[in-house]
Amino acid sequence: MRSPEFADQLNAYPPTGVLVVGAGPSGLSAALSAARNGAQVRVVERFGFVGGNLTAGLVGPCMTSFSLDGRTQLVRGIFDEFVRRMEAEGGAVHPSRVRSGTDFAGFMGFGHERVTPFDPESAKAVALEMLQEAGVELLLHTFVADVVTDGRRIRGVVVANKDGLGYLPADVVVDCTGDGDVAARAGAEVAYGRDGDGAVQPMTLFFRVRNVDDRAVEEYARAHPEDLFPFQSIVERARAEGRFPIPRRGIQLFRTPEPGVWRINTTRVLGRDGTSAADLTAAEIEARGQVRALLEFFRTDVPGLERAELLDTAATIGVRETRRVVGEYTLTLEDLIAGRHFDDVVAVAGYPVDIHSPVSGDGPFDDGIPATANVYEIPFRSLVPRDLDNVLVSGRCLSATHEALAAVRVMPPCFAMGEAAGLAAAWARQDGTTVHDVDVTRLQRRLVEQGAYLGDRLDPALAAGAAAGRGA
Ligand SMILES: Cc1cc2nc3c(=O)[nH]c(=O)nc-3n(C[C@H](O)[C@H](O)[C@H](O)COP(=O)(O)OP(=O)(O)OC[C@H]3O[C@@H](n4cnc5c(N)ncnc54)[C@H](O)[C@@H]3O)c2cc1C
After folding, report:
1. Where in the chain are the domains?
2. Which pLDDT does position 457 carry in this prediction?
């Protein structure tokens, strides 16, 4: 945290009404939601393109946007609009057409009903178009390195880019960095890792391969239902022979919309901190070594991947977990298991708790944690940092326990949270209130009006209210 005098020495950027830091799933959605509701919005993003893990991380498919049983689409609104626009250009398959156990779902059953396969290049282009149509100002290639505060308020952020160090004043900030960089630097209390030892989920560098024999992979997977993870028995045999050093129980692989092209979610780096540049560097080096080893293993051992070639590796290693900003409410595992109702619900989701073990090759889904409810809710208070007055958090850095985060961290709920946080930021700016004082009933009504779904319990009443309020 820096003083106003420090900011005076830096390049000055024009003031911003709503500043969104980070253009991943939650940042894209927050920026669109704020701009479409009248705010002047600027997005600061460290990469030269938008999408966060959707694009830079090569992460995919988008895990389910439906209830756990696959019957009801829960994450709608901006997420659904984004997917349909990608689908219209051949860049995605709508989740309503994708079933668990299939190649698009990585042959996984539990938790993999109605995932969304998509092409990362389509995601980059469509997201950028949507931001530009909404009038969002972009500042790419720019990293937020610090903040200037005034008590519980952020006055602006300190950025580093090709122009040097700069100061960007802002009225309200939505922290969508995944790591809670902004809120943490402003002095908000944060939690890190699981209770007891503070360990976090491992990192994974995604990569894609081409020239895969799609049919052979599918036939093998169908013929081996005993494998919990694809190719598990082959991996176990190779490990016993000392030929598989990666702490993973199988090959997690997902077919993409492009024939012969699959995403590989199988490297695993344990014990590194995603908020440390030194650890991130070490993790990138270790993971890139694992990519080479896996490509060799595919050629010798894995049916359908014998002739696979590396298409690309992600621009960044994927970080599953770092800081969680302590909010007015901390979402818990019990809330998700019980499907607890919150009066201030602003997002609903159905993806189960998915913990990749912080210390071993186990997971996902073999940690003995009971299934979550078919539908669970995320309250607005989990997006409101307890210690700050003009900052909201959204996405991976929301206020949740280690276990609850392991469910809501996937990309569709991050879109849903962003839509709510962006709207709340726009209204806090317009009304001159703190983020703690945003009228949540009005927020819910507007979210429903713009296509979000907040669950059956609230929806009919809200929808009626929204209809009555239209044009007022
Ligand atoms: C290995 C791995 C596998 C996963 N698998 C899946 C999956 O299959 N399906 C699924 O739906 N989800 C999956 N997830 C979860 C999901 O990708 C993330 O939790 C989700 O993308 C979080 O969204 P976000 O918007 O909070 O953050 P991110 O997607 O991380 O976006 C954050 C953005 O902020 C930017 N940023 C960060 N710090 C700064 C800063 N200080 N200044 C400027 N810009 C900054 C980043 O460049 C990035 O663009 C996976 C995650 C990982 C790591």
Report:
1. 4-195+321-469, 207-313
2. 81
CA distance linking residue 394 with residue 174, whole number of Å: 7
Q: What is the DSSP string of 301-343?
A: H-TT-TT-EEEEE-SS-B----EEE-BSS-B-HHHHHHT---T
Q: How high is the pLDDT of residue 470?
A: 31
Atom of ligand 1 at shortest distance to CA of 397? 26
Pick the CATH number of 4-195+321-469 from 2.60.40.1930, 3.30.360.10, 3.50.50.60, 3.40.50.11740: 3.50.50.60
Take residue 84 and report the two structure tokens written for it. Answer: 């349909």
Atom of ligand 1 nearest to the CA of 395: 26
Rounded Cα gap, residues 324 and 337, in angstroms: 20
How big is the chain, counted in residues? 472
Q: What is the pLDDT of residue 466?
A: 47
What's the 51 CA to ligand 1 centre distance in angstroms?
8
The predicted pLDDT at position 463 comes to 52
Query: Residue 206 CA to chain centroid, in angstroms?
Result: 15
Contact by Cβ (8 Å): 330, 378:
no
**What rounded mean pLDDT belongs to the chain?**
95
Question: Are the C-beta atoms of 379 and 344 separated by less than 8 Å?
Answer: yes
Provide residues with CB under 6 Å of ligand 1: 21-27, 44-47, 52-53, 56-57, 59-63, 143-144, 176-179, 181, 204, 265, 318-320, 395-396, 409-411, 414
Question: Which of the residues in the chain have pLDDT under 50?
Answer: 466-472
Separation of alpha carbons 390 and 369, rounded Å: 36
What pLDDT, on a 0 to 100 scale, did the predictor assign at position 469?
37
- Which tokens go with 35? 């701009």
CA–CA gap between residue 92 and residue 87 (Å, rounded): 4
pLDDT score at 115: 98
For ligand 1, pick from 411, 415, 417, 419 the residue to mutate: most ligand atoms within 8 Å of CB: 411
Instruction: Kindly give the number of the ligand 1 atom that is closest to the alpha carbon of 145.
Output: 41
